[in-house]
Amino acid sequence: MREIGSVAPEMLARRRAGAAAAAAGRAAPAVGAPAGTVTVAARAARAAGAALGLALALALGAAAGAAETPGPFRGERFTIAFPEGWEIADTGDRVRAIPPDSPSRRDPPIFVEVQTIPADAGGLDSLLGEEDGLARWLAATRRELTIAGRERAGAHAVLVAEEGRRRLLAVHARAGEDFHLVLIAAAPRADFERLRPIFRKVIESFEGGRA
């Protein structure tokens, strides 16, 4: 006869299996469920764990990289600290940084870029020399764009805008009297808020240089 308070071997085995599954980040199948069954709760736990892991990696890794990069990137007319590990492409008048796991380099969903535009440029670029020029230039040169707000990051005035399924932060600076600098940091709406602190660190590091 089993003593009061003792645990039957099969029950003990089930408890140990459940504890092992939980430790591995999985929810154990319900008693009686077919082998290989994954409950809704298990799927939710896995998704939450993956999201948390990605958020922590970005917050602790990429954000730290933006603040602790050994030396900032030095463009021809500006300096900036991109997140550590991001890939940088410099075409002279445009410098773009993207995450190393970006699915596309031609049209990346997440990027930070700086454009250098001559102050005497004609056409739509001349809008940058006017009052509230950045907002007018963005509205004229980017499709489906609307200004959603304004904020500050360090010494910079920042425009918050929406463009289709993407949100972006934009900054206008000068390199001497001869060049405009436009910084744009963009991400899909679903990713924007978790990337916003990283974008702000990059913007705070941004400094225009001499022409």
Keywords for this structure?
about 210 residues, disordered N terminus, alpha+beta, 10 strands, 4 helices, Protein Transport Mog1p, Chain A, seven-stranded antiparallel β-sheet
Description:
This protein is α+β, with helices and mostly antiparallel strands. The protein has a domain of 137 residues: Protein Transport Mog1p, Chain A. 33% of the residues lie in helices and 29% in strands. It has four helices and ten strands; from the N terminus they run ααβββββαββββαβ. Strands 3-4-5-9-8-7-6 form a seven-stranded antiparallel beta sheet. Helix 2 runs parallel beside helix 4. The protein is globular. The chain starts with 8 loop residues before the first helix and ends with a strand.
Please provide the count of β strands: 10
Dominant shape: globular
Under the CATH scheme, which architecture of the domain at 72-208 would be assigned? 3-Layer(aba) Sandwich
End-to-end distance, in Å?
A: 91 Å
Taking Cα atoms only, what radius of gyration do you get, to the nearest Å? Answer: 25 Å
Side by side, the strands of the main sheet go 3-4-5-9-8-7-6
Relative strand content = 25-35%
Task: Give the structure's gist in a few sentences.
This protein is α+β, with helices and mostly antiparallel strands and 211 residues long.
Task: Please describe the topology of this protein.
Layout lengths: L8 H15 L16 H29 L4 E2 L3 E3 L6 E4 L3 E5 L12 E8 L14 H9 L3 E9 L2 E8 L2 E10 L3 E10 H17 L1 E2 L3
Antiparallel strand pairs: 1-2, 2-10, 3-4, 4-5, 5-9, 6-7, 7-8, 8-9
Helix pairs in contact: 2-4
